[in-house]
């Protein structure tokens, strides 16, 4: 579906999850920015664990919105955020992350390993969408993400 056709069907306001979904592999595409060493290792090995520069104890934020990811990493110009990876998460995993996620200030739901944050959605020209929010998920110590099991 073309962007301009899809856009016409999107809700104009509220907290919305807009994501690329591949039904052939039953997966949702999320984006994350990394440095060259982590990105090269992840692409070659299809996991993050094993890369000396990757820390499972550091919160890593994944986003379903490519433009928002590009904006946050300075269009690939920020230090240690110069490579944006498209990561296909199994849909059941994405849904599990949503169930486990907690928003800032809310009570922990067990492990407190998945954080949920709503940020301004962005138009294709990079300007913020003032009435629609896009999701990002913070993952910390999520071993099944780091070791590639969720991918």
Automatic annotation (TrEMBL):
Instruction: Give the highest taxon in the source lineage.
Output: Eukaryota
Q: Which InterPro entries match?
A: DUF4291
A Pfam family per the record: DUF4291
What name does the UniProt record give this protein? DUF4291 domain-containing protein
- Organism in which the protein naturally occurs: Vannella robusta
């Amino acid at each position: 579906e073309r962007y301009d056709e899809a856009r016409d069907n999107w809700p104009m306001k509220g907290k919305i999850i807009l994501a690329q979904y591949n039904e052939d592999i039953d997966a949702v595409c999320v984006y994350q920015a990394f440095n060259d060493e982590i990105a090269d290792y992840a692409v070659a090995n299809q996991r993050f664990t094993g890369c000396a520069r990757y820390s499972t104890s550091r919160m890593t934020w994944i986003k379903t919105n490519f433009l928002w990811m590009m904006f946050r990493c300075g269009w690939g110009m920020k230090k240690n955020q110069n490579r944006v990876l498209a990561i296909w998460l199994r849909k059941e995993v994405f849904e599990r992350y949503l169930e486990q996620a907690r928003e800032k200030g809310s009570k922990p739901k067990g492990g407190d390993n998945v954080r949920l944050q709503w940020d301004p959605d962005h138009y294709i020209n990079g300007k913020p969408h003032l009435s629609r929010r896009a999701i990002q998920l913070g993952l910390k110590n999520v071993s099944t993400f780091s070791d590639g099991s969720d991918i």
